[in-house]
Amino acid sequence: MITPTVHTMAEKRGLTTAYQLQKLLNISPSVAAQLWSGDFKRIDLGTLDRLCIALRCKPNDLLRFEQDGEK
Q1: Which residues, listed in sequence order, are joined to residue 4 by a DSSP beta bridge?
Q2: Pick the residue with more confidence: 13 or 69?
Q3: How many CB atoms lie within 10 A of CB 70?
Q4: Domain range spanning residue 51?
Q5: Distance of CA 31 to the CA centre of its chain
Q6: Which CATH number covers residue 48?
Q7: Could you tell me whether strands 63-65 and 2-4 are parallel, antiparallel, or unpaired per DSSP bridges?
Q8: How many Cβ atoms from other residues are within 10 Å of residue 40's Cβ?
Q9: 34 and 16 Cβ atoms separated by less than 8 Å
């Protein structure tokens, strides 16, 4: 199972709201809210790239993988 951790990484970089993420990435409020809440099933590679640049991280910092039964 893959779990988004955008919110956690953003907070480590000093962002405290979805609105701040929206402004940093120049994305729509709805996309920012989905990224912030982790309530998304897909992410565009362009958005992932902008997230990595803005948050100074790698994709594996934004998505956590756990095999079934692991915790």
Answers
A1: 63
A2: 13
A3: 7
A4: 2-65
A5: 10
A6: 1.10.260.40
A7: antiparallel
A8: 14
A9: no
